Amino acid sequence: MIVPVDGSHDSWKAFDVALALARAVDGQVEVVEIVSDQSDASLALKTMHERVAETDTTGIDVTTSVEVTGNDVVSALVAVFDRHEGSTFVMGSHGRGRSAALIGSVTDELLRTTYGPMVVVGPDAAVPDFTGPVVVTVDGSALSESAVSLAAAWSIELGSAVWIVQVLEPNLRLPPDVSEAVYTSRLAHRLTALTNRPVQTEVLHGRDPVDAVNTFAASVGASLIVAGTHGRTGAARLTMGSTVAGFVKHGPCPVLLIRPPHFPS
After folding, report:
1. Which of residues 106 and 238 earns the better pLDDT score?
2. Disulfide engineering: 24 pairs with which of 30, 130, 162, 258, CB 3.0-4.6 Å?
3. pLDDT tens for residues 125-144?
4. Domain that holds residue 140
């Protein structure tokens, strides 16, 4: 796991999440800070070492690094990512200074470059122990379904259950011979056949899918909410109140984002 920090509480909360995740999957954590001037590097590294020392990292290989760059934060983070094949960014949704819009420009550009997956830790997210289920939301689109396989893969790694969740309008009328759960059941059946693991489904009702999914995730003690973000609007749209932004901003747990490469920019 790669955790970008900038000294803010939210960025270091992501470090706590990464540690919990590393414990669950026997992973490693690298904490990285981007500075614009070489003269800031020593102090940044010292501060990082002090913060890491305050945390129980028993059994986890934690490394720290400082990258010096001009204004191109994304390129510096991608360079770190490229040095750690198969790694995952775990980052706070907000920072301070030029990192304050992580959920917008930086997250969007990282997804465009690496395609994810990326774990984003919102302000209301608890630090899970990753024993709870993984909740993935679907809406009938290929984009949402692209997140289902990712949710399954992570649930296998974590040894946890998967919930496939769809939100329908409260007054939606379906033909008498059509079950409202037919779509989620079909996805669950397909996923069970592929993974040989049980998959649970739930059809929620509400005009606000964000509230419905977040409430459900809290009720089942979810470790992660999994969602796909479109390459064209991408995570930049998260700053404009999209559904995925609501999962991040108000969700009870971290959000696992993916931007499938086959969705055009």
Report:
1. 106
2. 130
3. 999 999 999 999 998 888 88
4. 134-258
Q: Mean pLDDT over residues 193-220, rounded?
A: 92
- Find, among 250, 262, 261, 172, the residue nearest to 218 by Cα: 250
Burial 144-153 (b: 16+ CB within 10 A, else e): bbbbbbbbbe
Which residues, listed in sequence order, are joined to residue 200 by a DSSP beta bridge? 163
How far is residue 20's CA from residue 26's CA, in Å, rounded to a whole number?
10
pLDDT, average across residues 187-213: 91
End-of-domain residue from the set 75, 100, 125:
100
184 & 91 share domain: no
Helix ranges (H only) for 39-159 are 41-53, 73-83, 107-114, 142-158
Asked whether residue 129 is assigned to any structural domain, the reply reads no
For residue 261, the model assigns a pLDDT of 62
Q: Please give the sequence-ordered ranges of beta strands (E in DSSP) within the chain, or none if there are none.
A: 2-5, 28-35, 61-68, 89-92, 118-121, 134-138, 162-168, 199-205, 224-228, 255-258
Cis peptide bond N-terminal to 4, omega within 30: no
Assess whether 239 and 142 both reside in one domain.
yes
Q: Are strands 162-168 and 134-138 parallel, antiparallel or unpaired?
A: parallel
In a shared domain, residues 65 and 160: no
The structural domain count of the chain equals 2
Q: Are 186 and 178 in contact (CB under 8 A)?
A: no
> Is the residue at 127 inside a domain?
no
